[in-house]
Design a protein that fits this description.
This protein is an alpha/beta fold and 261 residues long. 49% of the residues lie in helices and 15% in strands. The chain has nine helices and nine strands. Strands 3-2-1-4-5-6-9 form a seven-stranded parallel beta sheet, sandwiched between helices. Strands 7-8 form a two-stranded parallel sheet. The relative contact order is 0.14.
Length: 261
């Protein structure tokens, strides 16, 4: 119990798994959340993470009562975390002309946005009373500007940026930090189906190293890698007419039906 505790959603693969390993190596106890808990168990065993240094919680963040219950269970079993990382998310293309994609958009927001707020909810008051803690929201560079075929994902990640900004102002008087991280292209199962060029593609372990440093420093907002930060600033400043020309003909993100075997 003398070791700090980190609570991470979406810990069964990709960024979540890389962050779990990085925090473990820094001496943190782990509270790991995912729908596929068997994958976490197998990974933890292979990584040499002892049973006493981690707990696994099964929850779908898109179902608010389940992720809230997982947070409450964590407090009861392991104590109040020092860091909570709302990492779980989905990324699927959409076409507004397709009726089924409206349900996909609802699912995206339920996971990426409502799920984030529900992840933080069990910890907010307790951290405020303790007057310490860090809440980390994983957004994306895709939240900076809308990209064709990415409507649901871009909108959800833009909402993460605004939500975390609002939460940061609410929690600051109570000594609780809110950190917004915007990954660029990270090599994970989420990005591998993409059918377009991914500049500055970064291994998940490298992202985790830089994210760990940003979280430790209490940065309010950080784009990783820095090169994508430059791209993000250029995208933010680009006039609409120029952006539309640059994106014309760009391959769209795969829709759910495109990903089915």
């Amino acid at each position: 119990m003398n070791h700090p505790l980190v609570f991470i959603t979406g810990a069964s693969s990709g960024i979540g798994q890389a962050l779990a390993l990085r925090f473990h190596r820094a001496g943190y106890r782990l509270a790991l959340v995912a729908r596929r808990t068997a994958e976490i168990e197998a990974w933890a065993g292979a990584a040499g993470i002892s049973a006493g240094s981690h707990e696994i919680y099964r929850a779908d963040v898109a179902v608010a009562e389940r992720i809230v219950a997982a947070g409450q269970d964590c407090i009861a079993r392991q104590g109040l975390p020092d860091v909570v990382i709302a990492n779980a998310g989905i990324s699927v293309g959409m076409d507004t002309a397709e009726r089924d994609d409206i349900e996909m958009m609802a699912r995206t927001f339920a996971t990426n946005n409502i799920g984030m707020a529900a992840t933080f909810q069990p910890f907010v008051n307790a951290m405020a009373r303790r007057r310490s803690g860090t809440l980390v929201g994983i957004s994306s560079v895709a939240g900076i500007r809308g990209l064709p075929g990415h409507g649901a994902y871009c909108a959800s990640k833009a909402a993460v940026i605004s939500y975390c900004e609002s939460l940061r102002g609410e929690m600051r008087p109570h000594g609780v930090r809110v950190v917004t991280l915007l990954p660029g292209y990270i090599d994970t199962p989420l990005t591998r189906p993409n059918r377009y060029r991914m500049p500055f593609l970064m291994p998940a372990s490298d992202f985790a190293d830089r994210a760990f440093r940003a979280i430790g420093a209490g940065l309010s907002y950080q784009v990783i890698p820095w090169q994508m930060g430059v791209v993000a600033k250029l995208l933010r400043m680009a006039p609409n007419a120029l952006l539309d020309r640059l994106l014309a003909g760009r391959p769209r993100k795969r829709r759910q039906t495109d990903l089915l075997p």
